[in-house]
């Protein structure tokens, strides 16, 4: 044995040969592929949902012995306990947490697969699940999805929410891609983003309010006394508004309505001249075209985090997703 081998032995034994590690991984993968079944995935999902074998049996209509046997099969596949048993139910081990997460992703992907197959059966090329924050201009989204359908015969499902919720849905395999703020991707190795364009914020209000404030200088103290519609402080624009009032050393206004809904904002702003809000400029332009509101003549010297296309890291990108990305580049370039 060499001196280096002696040192390894003294440190706690010989290091595993990489070939042995690869063989172990291959064997584990083969075991899963040959023995893992849909009922195992469903059982893991049910355990995650209900927290105990008794509740799983009651809610699914499966006998308790059958539930216990299925869990034993699953743990045999992984060669280790996946849950700690107690009178209060099941608490997942670290491996159990991973197993439930992977099972959830696999079931979600199978559901998408079934929906895509149904779309193809009906004559479409594919089905794409898109998440979009409310501050994506309707004109951009409309042009993109129309081009996707007309050029490539792809049908689209759109979900709207804040970036943090959409990014979590993307990580959970509930969405294929997200139009949102790139800042939400930080620290997530399983996601990547492509910047589309930057958005500049503006103040919006009733047309009569616009006339009253015309010619005045931007005064955060006066603005703080007004009625505001604001998104949550957890959103990029909400956080920035809090920061602006704090920097101006004036109290941060408590919004009369906290919402991200463009329809609600427009409805209230167009009827109440005492209310004000802040939105991206391209959204403000679309709102003003509906009538009743306008953009206040004060320019902000900052930009929101860029609007980006956020995607999961994949070995092989989805063709429909690539087509969508190409159309967005055309429209935003």
Provide a descriptive summary of the structure in words.
This protein is α/β, with parallel strands linked by helices and 333 residues long. The protein folds into three domains: 3-102, Orthogonal Bundle (Arc Repressor Mutant, subunit A); 124-198 and 306-332, D-Maltodextrin-Binding Protein, domain 2; 201-295, D-Maltodextrin-Binding Protein, domain 2 (3-Layer(aba) Sandwich), CATH 3.40.190. It is 51% helix and 18% strand. The chain is built from 14 helices and twelve strands. The chain has helices at 3-10, 18-35, 38-50, 53-60, 64-78, 94-121, 138-152, 163-171, 207-213, 220-224, 236-247, 262-269, 281-289, 319-332; strands at residues 83-86, 89-92, 126-132, 154-160, 177-181, 191-197, 201-206, 227-230, 257-258, 275-280, 293-295, 307-312. The chain has a five-stranded mixed beta sheet with strand order 4-3-5-12-6, sandwiched between helices. Strands 9-8-10-7-11 form a five-stranded mixed beta sheet, with helices on both faces. α3 crosses α4 and α4 (53-60) crosses α5. The longest helix is centred in the N-terminal third of the chain and has 28 residues, at 94-121. It starts with a helix and ends with a helix. Residues 1-16 have low confidence and may be disordered.
